[in-house]
Amino acid sequence: MAAASADDARPRRLRLPRSRRLTIDVLHYHRQVPTCAHDRVMDLSRLSQLRAGLSQRISWSMLFIKAYGMVAAKFPVLRQTYMPWPWPHVYQHPCSVAMVATHREIDGEAWLFWSRFTRPEGQPLPRLQEFLERYQHAPVQDVFQRQWQLSALPTPVRRMFWWWALNTSGVQRARRTGTFFLTTISAKGAEIQHPPAFLTANMTFGPLDDRGRIRVTIAYDHRLMDGAFIADCLAELEATLNGPIAEELRDLAGVRHDASPPAHRLSA
Question: What CATH number is associated with residue 70?
């Protein structure tokens, strides 16, 4: 670690980095949504084995957003949004729109962007992975153009854009900010206790343990649903991951259903 400079030893007032502005905006609106968080420990050992046997990498995040989209197709409330203006009402979107927290580094500085995946439940997993890799590696000015431009604006102006996007149209709100959010730091061996976002449902998952189990958490808008419903959704999510999602991985790997599974391997 480099030694501290003389400037570091003196009190200083620093300008708020541009890289933190969008996160601050999200936290501002997160505080306006009464969320509760519940979790479930899922046995995904078989899914992990199938994923490890693939010749191409499929991110755990893509498995989760597709499975969640399939669950939301069965339970429309997961595609609903509480709209406070011009009077309190509920908007229901016809499909899921996933927003995935995506870390990027720009000029040695860490940024957090939100990658959008429309109708993940209807997309093949390799296609979702292609989109994810583009979000992770393409120039941010191309793949996150609006977020990049918004981050350059003063706070009052940014908040005007946010207010307009979140309150004037349920259709545009879902298209721009999504119907659910996913964030994870499982690759770092850590868990997020309560995903900080303002959508109806905000999901996270931790690292796999040595038995192929994983803790999955959903923080939800308590104005629209209750804990018992989320418990059912978590159970359905586990069944979907071990059912249709596992079937798709088998097809990608060309594995017969009665074939012996490959050796278990943990992968973040």
Answer: 3.30.559.10
Q: How many domains does the chain have?
A: 1
The CA distance from 123 to 125, in Å, is 6
Element (H, E) at 102: strand 97-106
pTM: 0.90
Q: What digits encode the pLDDT tens for the residues 172-216? A: 999 999 999 999 999 999 999 999 999 999 999 999 999 999 999
Kindly state whether residue 196 falls inside one of the protein's structural domains: yes
In a domain, 157, yes or no: yes
pLDDT digits (tens, 9 = 90+) for 117-152: 999 999 999 999 999 999 999 999 999 999 999 999
For 227, the token pair is 């804990």
In a domain, residue 28? The reply is yes
Domain that holds residue 222: 17-252
Q: Whole-angstrom Cα distance, residue 158 to residue 33? A: 19
